[in-house]
Amino acid sequence: AAGVIQSPRHLIKEKRETATLKCYPIPRHDTVYWYQQGPGQDPQFLISFYEKMQSDKGSIPDRFSAQQFSDYHSELNMSSLELGDSALYFCASSLGSGDTQYFGPGTRLTVL
Amino acid sequence: QKEVEQNSGPLSVPEGAIASLNCTYSDRGSQSFFWYRQYSGKSPELIMFIYSNGDKEDGRFTAQLNKASQYVSLLIRDSQPSDSATYLCAVKGGYGNKLVFGAGTILRVKS
């Protein structure tokens, strides 16, 4: 079965640079979630979208923004990167906002 | 205090034994409860979900929910070395659709 696709899988950036992470949900899934997982930590919710509208917001820094497009894929834009932004970024998708979330393989972001 | 609490472990069990993983949550409005398995550096993989009080079985896995005690557990029967991973308890609250995760319990199954 098709799964959530994330790109790139690995990304290395310098401090103060920008990064864009992409997420392609499971076909027919209309809801996308972004989570950040630091080393040795549990995933922390950042933001979610349902039918291209922001549906919930968590601990997402003001330097980050995200959107969901008409084909339901989502992009997480991160600016003025800091060392502390180094983490695994997971995208998850679900069919409807109340359904079970399935996670993508993640993007490992390293900020030098 | 975290909204979702788990014993970080590690929990060590011999191959073939039953592993019991526990989780408590603080939000009484929580509606849905999930167990994810995560191998180091990999993404969380859904193992079980449970919405109603009682037990739910799927193969070697049984999830148990007690909303009055705000307690969720996962039993793994006939534990295998391949079950060695971090098990994350996740809770979806009454408002919004985000998952709130516990810190995870490290399970080690020794052959």
Give a short synopsis of this structure.
The complex is a heterodimer of chains A (112) and B (111). Helix content of chain A is 0%, strand content 51%. Chain A is an all-beta fold.
Please give a handful of descriptors for the protein shown.
heterodimer, A: 112 residues, mainly beta, seven-stranded mixed beta sheet, four-stranded antiparallel beta sheet, 0% helix, globular, B: 111 residues, six-stranded mixed beta sheet, five-stranded antiparallel beta sheet
Write the layout of secondary structure elements.
The complex is a heterodimer of chains A (112) and B (111).
Chain A: E1 5-7, E2 10-13, E3 19-24, E4 31-37, E5 44-50, E6 53-57, E7 64-68, E8 74-78, E9 87-94, E10 102-103, E11 107-111
Parallel strand pairs in A: 2-11
Antiparallel strand pairs in A: 1-3, 3-8, 4-5, 4-9, 5-6, 7-8, 9-10, 9-11
Chain B: E1 4-6, E2 11-14, E3 19-25, E4 32-38, E5 45-50, E6 54-58, E7 61-66, E8 71-76, E9 85-92, E10 99-101, E11 105-110
Parallel strand pairs in B: 2-11
Antiparallel strand pairs in B: 1-3, 3-8, 4-5, 4-9, 6-7, 7-8, 9-10, 9-11
Polypeptide structure, described:
The complex is a heterodimer of chains A (112) and B (111). Chain A contains no helices and eleven strands. In chain A, a hairpin with a 2-residue loop joins strand 5 and strand 6. Chain A starts with a strand and ends with a strand. Chain B has 111 residues and is mostly beta strands. In chain B, strand 9 and strand 10 form a beta hairpin. The termini of chain B are far apart. The chains are: A mainly beta (112), B mainly beta (111). At the A-B interface, strand 4, strand 5, strand 9 and strand 10 of A face strand 4, strand 5 and strand 10 of B.
The pLDDT mean of chain B sits at 94
Envelope shape of chain B: globular
Q: Please bin the fraction of helical residues of chain A.
A: under 10%
Could you state the order of secondary-structure elements of chain B as H and E?
EEEEEEEEEEE
- Give average pLDDT of chain A, whole number: 95
Distance between the termini of chain A: 36 Å
Largest sheet of chain B: 6 strands, mixed
How big a fraction of the residues of chain A is strand? over 45%
3D shape of chain A? globular
* Count of beta strands of chain B: 11
Greatest contact pair? A-B, 27 and 21 residues
Strand content of chain B: over 45%
Low-confidence spans of chain B: none
